[in-house]
Batch of 2 targets.
Target 1
Amino acid sequence: MSLPAVACPPTSADRRIVIVGGGYAGTTLAVRLGRALKRRPRPGVEVLLIETSPCQQALSELDLVAVGPERPEFCELWLPAVLKDLPVRTCFNRVEHIDAERRVVVLAGTEEISYWRLIVATGAVPFVPPVPGLAEHAITMWSVADAQKLQTRAREQSKLAASMPTSELRRQALSFTVCGGGATGVEVVGTLGQLLPKRAAEVGLDPHDLNIHLVEGRQEILYDLKPAQRARARQRLSKIGVEVVTGSMVERVNDSSLTLADGREVPASTLVWCGGAKADPHAAQWGFALDNAGRIPVSAESKAEGFDDVYVLGDVAAFRHPKDGRVLPMLAQFAITSAEHASRNILAELDCGPTTPFIPNQHGEFVSVGPSWGVGWMFGLNLSGLPAIFMKRLTYVLYWWQVGGLKLAWKRGRELLAMQR
Ligand SMILES: Cc1cc2nc3c(=O)[nH]c(=O)nc-3n(C[C@H](O)[C@H](O)[C@H](O)COP(=O)(O)OP(=O)(O)OC[C@H]3O[C@@H](n4cnc5c(N)ncnc54)[C@H](O)[C@@H]3O)c2cc1C
């Protein structure tokens, strides 16, 4: 949900910390700074969070909204409630421009806000390559609105299938294809595979008429996981009726199917595109250096090159791991931990203390393959099935706990269980 542009009148603060983007990184930072300033206020300091929407979208659980019961609010974190007892001002508006030389952000409607420290945390958007027909026919998976689109589409296709006289026509109407065999695509197709048969049976359709595919251009799915874990994920997908098609790129798309470069055709009356992400393209126009992928390279302290007063966090940042020099992947866990670290550095700067480099640590990674089964690793230990899905969900319950306290974590945890059915 986005609101009409609102004015954000300036205050007299001379050390204003402006956070642009209230996703995993921005919200974590706002909450951390807010709590610290509540415990020990500093004179002339203000935290201002500028975000287009009052709801943070919990992207990692979108697949459940797409096929679960109609409870979209499950996936949204209401920022005014999370921040209500903290000394954090919010402004629900879009930042149109940043002038880092003049130290101002420009909001929609040309209002300018000056800053002492700026945090750019505007995330990423889906990357949709220029494949003929793709943009017109595919649903991306990047917001609750996208997930609802898929839910509506599934309902419409079920109605259509119910009116079809033959199994062949019903299978075409009920053909669901997800493109992209990374974590997001596997999560979405896994949930479709596990829950769509139930939804079909509820409306009197034969679940055998469902026709669900996962398409990946490379030879394998889930490249970030070890081969044994990938094989387990494939077995699970096969068990829940998902056919995996790998080894050829999508060449063109129409309203009922897609054609691969090797000539294979995959039915796709409903197509979901999970083929990648790119850093917020607007941030690319704000005068910071960019890497080849369009992300903003940052220093060991997560600051934009050449700007000691600008932090860049989360998906929009290209943070190189100090050990192997690789840019961190776009993951919520890095957005959250880099924001936690930045909050400590900003507080140190407020108190004229030393700042420290961010050392990212990845202790685990989990992918759901359907709502009740997962695969991944933790502290070098491979996990699959229930323990893995438990760990995946626990990570997010912990996030809600960290930003919203026990009450929110409890509420969200219960909603999460309800969404699995
Ligand atoms: C379907 C899906 C599933 C995922 N699952 C997982 C998972 O299981 N585990 C994991 O670790 N990661 C997962 N990810 C990745 C994870 O969601 C991202 O890495 C994470 O959201 C990055 O956090 P962020 O704060 O950088 O950006 P976001 O959380 O995307 O937040 C960016 C915010 O900036 C706001 N914004 C953008 N431009 C402006 C502007 N100009 N002015 C004001 N506000 C602006 C946006 O409205 C948004 O709220 C998933 C992603 C998707 C799409």
Target 2
Amino acid sequence: MTRALAIAFAACVASTCSESTFFANGAGGADQDVKDVQQCPYHYRPIRRLSAASEIPAALAEEEPFILGGDFVASWPGWKKWSLDYFVKEYGESESAAADGEYPTIELKMGASYFKAPFSEIASRVRKGELVYGALSLDYAERSRLMEDAIVPPGMDDAPIMDCLKTKHGTMADEFLKSFFWSQIFVGAEGTGMEMHKDNLRTEIWSAQLTGEKQLVACNPRKSGTVYPEEYGDRAYVNAFDPDMKEFPNFAQSDCVWGALQPGELIHWPSTWYHQTKNTRGISLAVSGMSIGRSIASKFLVTLDNHIHSNDNIGAALRECIASSDLPAYEK
Ligand SMILES: O=C(O)CCC(=O)C(=O)O
């Protein structure tokens, strides 16, 4: 974006999009300096903030991203023990996927910057300040250990489905969790992030920020043309953190929301929303998971059937486990 355009955008809208909530300490007692107020750079609406878990069912029905603010995650047993050191100790040997290089560090096309490495190696490169962003996709046993220390809110809890998969289909639970990146631990250096994309299964996603700050822009799929999606695939070409309005003029008509996630906050978004992230302060450490409500389950199964990593057995097992799970219902 040219400087003149940037100023015009900022002048007309920035005042609608300020963030003032912050939490002073990260998970595991990590010191954080997150006291300055954040400003939304462009024409984005602030992501809606809820103050209590009781507001979740109504928020899920809105089909828009939301943040459970303040110290929500601090009430989880994991808050006191989770840290990068802790995850390295618990999961250090597990192979993780990562990318290095300039922002957006993680681009969804297969690129030379992708590599696989033990989680401990990725953590160590991030600690050294290298521009590395990685994610460990957990298998069933790893995920179960992690989730013992989480209190995933009602409407986002996938435990009944995953437990059914493990009990009835054994290793298929691991295959499913790993190949669909279902439950993840993200670690990234300041200045890394993921390009604009939408997720390729019809799920909902939550992410709990443990240390560092992560900014997220999410754009309404009802106006998906305005983010310039690729014709076949899940990426979109706009960089919402520095939009080139000459190349992508229709982005001015987009309907996007923005938020700066602080340690202790949990964000939730529907997978249909295009989204882009940037780690903007300190080492960003987050845990995330997918969930399925009753009202999107049938759409989820269709997307699963069409997915490149799926097969008839996975489809049948998920159908069985979804049918036998008491999924939360929220109107869509
Ligand atoms: O947390 C991030 O940086 C990106 C996560 C994301 O885009 C995803 O899980 O689809």
